[in-house]
Design brief:
Blueprint: H1 2-15, H2 23-32, E1 59-64, H3 72-86, E2 90-93, H4 110-121, E3 124-132, E4 135-136, H5 138-146, E5 161-167, H6 175-186, E6 190-198, H7 215-234, H8 238-241, H9 245-248, H10 252-259
Parallel strand pairs: 1-2, 1-3, 3-5, 5-6
Antiparallel strand pairs: 3-4
């Protein structure tokens, strides 16, 4: 009986109008959940997920992790950009040549400023890395490390859709994309479920640098199609999707001090 009574109380709480205008609801919330600040508690609302559609094309930034003359991660990234453009997106690709090591140059360095401006411009990203020694390359990681975790109290990448791809010189592996997926979560990005891993990449591109027809190519099409769908679904409501109760409890100054790790 006690268990049934507890369930009824929980169901009643879920049915209560917890809007800010309801003093009774706030009082009930304070009674049922004494650790909650009623002024900051919010019930997820369907209408907040139906923002007005943007008129501009989805803006996609592509990053790749090699500076070799014939870099297969760049070739794969270029193939992805062609597909995204055919799907109605505007794409921009960052060239990592000349980007200094993290913390080895000021934030005003031209390449750092270029990368950060592109990250701010974008509504979604594609990260493509070679796998080297079982991991993403240092060139790939350096680009992500130069994207600030926070500007003031806001993470510039939060809520943006992300697609992941990798190329390997040998058999198929997922080490690099698995690592990139961890980084995407850390940057509070919405990493799509699908991903691409191209094995023996030197066999998958012709002399002109175009990807040959194959199941690998078909998977790249799948991944880009999924990325565009996620971008269209989320780009207008991204701030709401990643809004957090815990951060509403903090002042903007305190939050900035906690998430901005530029001094580390």
């Amino acid at each position: 009986m006690a268990s049934q009574s507890s369930t009824r109380r929980e169901n009643a709480l879920h049915r209560v109008d917890l809007s800010a205008s309801s003093a009774a609801a706030r009082a009930r919330l304070a009674e049922e959940l004494p650790n909650i600040d009623p002024a900051l508690f919010a019930v997820p609302a369907t209408e907040r997920l139906q923002g007005p559609a943007s008129a501009h094309a989805p803006r996609i930034l592509l990053l790749y992790g090699s500076v070799r003359e014939r870099a297969y991660s760049r070739l794969l990234s270029e193939e992805a950009a062609r597909l995204l453009q055919a799907m109605g997106c505007e794409t921009r690709t960052f060239d990592p040549r000349g980007l200094p090591l993290p913390d080895d140059a000021p934030e005003s360095h031209p390449k750092v400023a270029e990368l950060r401006a592109l990250a701010e411009w974008s509504e979604a990203m594609v990260w493509t890395s070679p796998e080297r020694h079982g991991a993403m390359t240092a060139i790939m990681k350096a680009q992500i490390d130069w994207i600030p975790l926070a500007v003031g109290a806001v993470r510039p990448t939060q809520g943006k859709a992300l697609a992941l791809m990798q190329v390997s010189g040998g058999s198929q592996s997922f080490n690099a994309v698995n690592q990139l997926r961890v980084l995407g979560r850390w940057m509070r990005m919405l990493t799509i479920p699908n991903q691409s891993s191209v094995a023996k990449a030197f066999l998958e591109f012709d002399e002109a640098g175009r990807m040959k027809p194959s199941s690998y190519y078909d998977r790249v099409v799948d991944v880009m199609e999924e990325l565009v769908k996620f971008t269209l679904l989320t780009r207008n409501v991204a701030p709401y999707l990643v809004e957090r109760y815990s951060e509403r409890r903090e002042s903007a100054e305190a939050l900035s001090q906690r998430v901005n790790q530029g001094a580390l």
